[in-house]
């Protein structure tokens, strides 16, 4: 489908979703965003749903302003995936050992490494810029600087919620490795600090929703946020790179006889800010639950822990600010999913996948998410499908 245009106060709301299917809370959030004085455009992806602070699946283009709540608290959250030389024929009948080895190598949930991972010992890890990145930690907000040790030990760890590590097969039987994570606790604390700072500023006092408080250009508050935002986005990228290197090491050891090789890793943020130019204007484009889908850009759009995922290539649709969805998108809240589904439902919906099937992950059950095939179909003018993946192992925090 192409987009549907819904009238908004200062800009139209371009929707790659049927407006009648979007919950009232999310539509209110979108209409509130469209009232911001600095806004130049608003695009809505087919995985849209209500989110804390701002709508998940929204792309907000502003001039001279950025809204920290519209980025979200997991700054830089995103996906990485890589195709391997393995095929389905290389896999053992029981994948529980592989899942266990992944969980031993990569801390999940609130876990962290005992010591900071040394990237120099990781096969093929891009260490250029690593020391400079950590030297810039001294320049982040005073409020979180005491978290340095924790941030260092959480680098290369998964987290919980909808974050995952997966061992997948594409339709030809080729094995892919895929994972989803962000900037861990340090990103969350930086985001919460700056959201609080933005709410205090005089120019935000008359907004229809205090969650939409912004920083404006050429102010010390904007400079401080941009510094911390871009550092946290880099943290998230390094976090995924380390996890992927650890994941690859596990696979090399478990499939020694196959002498596994890996293609170039695909990586993309889906909660972030980028400086981009549209219609002759330099804009700050915030993607919360959306990936960049410029012409030729590779991206990853996951479904849920029992369905599958897509590797895509962007078509460069300027109407969406070169964006696409970040996943299937939830169709019910975590609490609603826990009320509605049981562990038996989880077992049924994840049959054939080596994964957790306990009450701790019922809120991540496939039935709590929109059908990924429909979400992909709604954005055929935004992305081209390159590969369809189905997980056989899924690690959750």
Structure description:
This protein is an alpha+beta fold. Helices cover 27% and strands 27% of the residues. The protein has 10 helices and 18 strands. Strands 6, 7, 8, 10, 14, 15, 17 and 18 form an 8-stranded mixed β-sheet that branches. Strands 1-2-3-4-12-11 form a 6-stranded mixed β-sheet, covered by helices on one side. Strands 5-9 form a two-stranded antiparallel ribbon. The longest helix is centred in the middle third of the chain and has 35 residues, at 220-254. The radius of gyration is 20 Å and the shape is globular.
Keywords:
397 residues; alpha+beta; 8-stranded mixed sheet; 6-stranded mixed sheet; 10 helices; globular
Q: How big is the Rg?
A: 20 Å
Percent strand equals 25-35%
Sheet with the most strands, sense and barrel status: 8 strands, mixed
Percent helix among the residues?
Answer: 25-40%
Helix count equals 10
- The stretches of 5 or more residues where confidence is low (pLDDT under 50) are none
Report, as a whole number of angstroms, the end-to-end distance: 35 Å
Gross morphology: globular
Provide the succession of SSEs: EEHEEEHEHHHEEHEHEEEEEEEHHEHE
Instruction: Quickly give the structural class.
Output: alpha+beta
Number of extended strands: 18
Instruction: Average the pLDDT over all residues and give the rounded result.
Output: 96
């Amino acid at each position: 489908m192409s987009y549907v245009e819904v009238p908004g106060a200062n800009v139209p709301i371009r929707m790659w979703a049927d407006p009648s299917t979007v919950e009232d809370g999310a539509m209110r959030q979108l209409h509130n965003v469209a009232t911001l004085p600095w806004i130049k455009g608003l695009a809505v992806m087919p995985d849209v749903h209500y989110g804390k602070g701002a709508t998940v699946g929204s792309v907000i283009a502003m001039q001279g302003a950025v809204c920290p709540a519209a980025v979200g608290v997991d700054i830089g959250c995103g996906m990485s995936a890589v195709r391997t030389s393995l095929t389905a024929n290389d896999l053992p009948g029981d994948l529980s050992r592989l899942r266990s080895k992944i969980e031993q190598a990569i801390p999940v949930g609130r876990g962290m490494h005992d010591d900071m991972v040394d990237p120099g010992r990781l096969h093929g890890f891009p260490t250029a810029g690593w020391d400079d990145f950590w030297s810039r930690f001294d320049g982040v907000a005073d409020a979180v600087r005491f978290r340095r040790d924790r941030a260092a030990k959480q680098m290369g760890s998964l987290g919980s919620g909808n974050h995952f590590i997966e061992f997948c097969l594409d339709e030809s039987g080729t094995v892919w490795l895929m994972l989803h994570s962000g900037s861990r606790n340090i990103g969350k604390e930086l985001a919460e600090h700056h959201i609080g700072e933005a709410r205090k500023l005089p120019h935000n006092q008359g907004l229809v929703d205090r969650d939409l408080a912004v920083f404006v250009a050429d102010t010390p508050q904007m400079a401080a946020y941009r510094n911390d935002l871009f550092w946290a986005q880099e943290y998230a990228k390094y976090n995924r790179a380390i996890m992927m290197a650890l994941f690859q090491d596990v696979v090399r050891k478990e499939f020694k006889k196959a002498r596994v090789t890996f293609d170039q890793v695909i990586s993309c943020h889906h909660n972030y800010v980028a400086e981009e130019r549209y219609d002759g204007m330099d804009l700050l484009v915030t993607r919360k639950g959306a990936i960049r889908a410029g012409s030729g850009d590779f991206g990853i759009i996951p479904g849920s822990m029992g369905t599958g995922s897509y590797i895509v290539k962007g078509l460069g649709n300027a109407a969406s600010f070169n964006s696409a969805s970040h996943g299937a998108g939830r169709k019910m809240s975590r609490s609603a999913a826990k009320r509605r589904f049981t562990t038996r439902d989880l077992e049924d919906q994840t049959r054939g996948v080596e994964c957790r099937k306990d009450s701790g992950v019922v809120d991540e059950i496939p039935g709590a998410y929109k059908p990924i095939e429909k979400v992909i179909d709604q954005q055929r003018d935004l992305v081209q499908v390159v590969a369809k993946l189905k997980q056989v192992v899924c690690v959750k925090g």
